[in-house]
Design the sequence.
């Protein structure tokens, strides 16, 4: 397929193979689906069961990738697009109460390297001049935070957190998260605020 574009007052022709055209189509399809999730989550911001909002999708690309993957898993030609979006978000609300959800996210954290989202191993391979580049270090840190949250939820469910220890000990972060009283972003930025103080 030939695509003609005018750049800097000159006409250019770009030729795409069938494979490249299919890739471009898949990329655009995923971007439209991502926008649909952002819009749907914006509309359901005040629902009591929702622990995530559209701002989290920008902050945590692995969450958006998880949603897109679930959407394709649930896809059924007999259901409307909006119904599948809602089914996927309902699945998010239920899955995000379990430690396994956060372990899955920890394994799916991409590295945003040189402006492109990459698997962590690809980033490390391309940045082989350094042992770890800043992008992979950031991704590893976020992955570790997801794992820590999974551990905190497991401890809370087993009764081995501070909630069950003694009266007046306060609530653990997992308890606050499970009740919906605590924004997940706070967990990721807690250390940065402590360092600033």
Sequence:
């Amino acid at each position: 397929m030939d695509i003609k574009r005018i750049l800097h007052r000159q006409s250019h022709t770009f030729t795409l193979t069938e494979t490249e055209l299919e890739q471009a189509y898949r990329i655009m399809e995923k971007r439209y689906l991502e926008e649909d999730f952002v819009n749907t989550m914006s509309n359901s911001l005040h629902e009591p069961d929702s622990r995530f909002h559209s701002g989290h999708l920008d902050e945590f690309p692995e969450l958006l990738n998880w949603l897109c993957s679930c959407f394709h898993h649930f896809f059924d030609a007999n259901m409307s697009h909006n119904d599948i979006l809602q089914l996927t978000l309902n699945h998010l609300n239920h899955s995000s109460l379990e430690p396994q959800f956060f372990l899955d996210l920890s394994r799916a954290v991409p590295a945003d390297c040189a402006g492109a989202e990459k698997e962590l191993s690809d980033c490390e391979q391309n940045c082989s001049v350094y042992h770890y580049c800043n992008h992979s270090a950031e991704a590893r840190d976020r992955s570790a935070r997801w794992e820590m949250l999974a551990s905190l939820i497991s401890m809370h469910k087993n009764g081995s957190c501070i909630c069950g220890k003694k009266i007046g000990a306060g609530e653990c972060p997992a308890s606050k998260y499970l009740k919906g009283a605590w924004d997940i972003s706070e967990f990721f930025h807690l250390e940065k605020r402590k360092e600033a103080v």
User: Anything to note?
Assistant: The beta strands are 2-7, 10-15, 111-113, 116-118. Residues 38 and 153 are 26 Å apart (CA to CA). The longest helix spans residues 18-43.
